[in-house]
Amino acid sequence: MKRNHRIAFGVMAALLTLALALTGCGSGGGGGSTAKTTTFNVGFGGPITQGDVSFGQGGLRAVQLAIANANKSQAAKDAGIQFKVVQGDDQSLADVGTTVAQGFVSDKNMVGAVAHFNSTVSIAASKVYHENNFVQISYGSTNPALTQQGFNNVFRTCATDDLQGPTGANRATKLGFKSVALVDDSSPYGQGLVAAFKTQFIKNGGKVVYQTSTQQKQNDFTAVATKIASVKPDLVYFGGTYSPDTGAGALLCKQLKSGGVTVPMMGGDGLYAPEFITQAGATAAEGSYATCPGMPVELLPNGKQFASDYEAMFPGKTPAPFDAYAYDAANAIINATYKVAKDLGTNRVTSPAGRDALIKAVAASNFDGVTGKVSFDKKGDNNNRVITLYKVVGGKWVAQPDN
Residue 382 sits in a domain of what CATH number? Predict the structure, then answer.
């Protein structure tokens, strides 16, 4: 028995020596380093080629920047972890977004997803993420319903329409608008935004003189423009997105002006994109308003460094508020990965126990992000809720102080 123990010990020692030698060779490190690096994937789901692409492409760039910065960090080196972005082009479509989500949850190396932008897409895909105990953090879905489903794995870094709508109504009242025509694009986002605006506007003493719904991808708003011109509101409030692939808010604005409507158009974050101005035309868009979660990037606590890094990595591109939310969402997932790797071991990060731990770690987030302090309430909503009003002035969106 003693001889067998000595033989077994000798074999084990030899195998251990071989394993260490192979690890040293495989690490690619100099000086005989035995450090091993594990790569985890972070999903990004958003409209990249179709739909509200301005928000999708900007969000993707922000996540890529967060990953690049993380991979260079001392925290990543200490943990022996690297990250990789996996893109999921949801095209602002709920069924496509669900397919993207199914791909993400089947990826055994993925620790979570920054997904999605459109509320319709996020709500549909959230069921897939929830069924698979998988972290989902939306960077742009503002419909309150997303986090009212009781899903402990669903979070968002942006503010919600139950804050954005009333903020828009309060600013409209302060600007002297006493009557409004309401239009939504039949999406959950658009309908929720209009409902929240309407309630507060009436509470403020305002009057709704007309209300209607348009359809996704609608391209003829002649009848709507004619009716609104006839009722002569002080303001047209639109709940929807700018893109012709979705709510077509830019085209609506253009046709309102050509149809004789001379008053401004106001909307939510779905309009706050340079493409709204270019697609509506600078003349038609001039004077339009849009609320958007967050503050202008240059006014954010860590905005200047973020903008500098962003523009260095993507020459010619300027970050928008939703890009900052995507960046913070990615970092919430990155930070959670470090914690779970430390607590459970790198090899268990994406195990069933690891996925539980990732959700709990994201829920306990408390760090200084680009947008300010990042933490979540019991529903998964960001505790840092700020709304800014913008106006098209001279062909550009310009922040309007709340004096």
Answer: 3.40.50.2300
SS3 assignment, position 236: strand
pTM of the shown model: 0.84
Amino acid 202 reads I
Could you tell me if 242 and 270 are in contact, meaning their C-beta atoms sit under 8 angstroms apart? yes
Q: Residue 87's domain spans which residues?
A: 38-159+299-386
Which amino acid is located at 178 in the chain?
K
**In a domain? residue 18:** no
Torsion of CA 156, 161, 163, 165, to 10 degrees: 160
Q: What does the pLDDT look like over 111-126, one tens digit per residue? A: 999 999 999 999 999 9
Q: What whole-number distance in Å separates Cα of residue 245 and Cα of residue 33?
A: 53
Q: What is the pLDDT of residues 15-32, one digit of tens each?
A: 333 333 333 333 333 333
Q: What DSSP designation does 117 have?
A: S
Dihedral sign computed on CA atoms, order 29, 35, 36, 40: negative
Count of domains observed in the chain:
2
Q: DSSP class of residue 382? A: B
Residues with Cβ < 8 Å from 188, sequence gap 6 or more?
119, 120, 123, 143, 145
Nearest alpha carbon to residue 334 among 79, 3, 27:
79
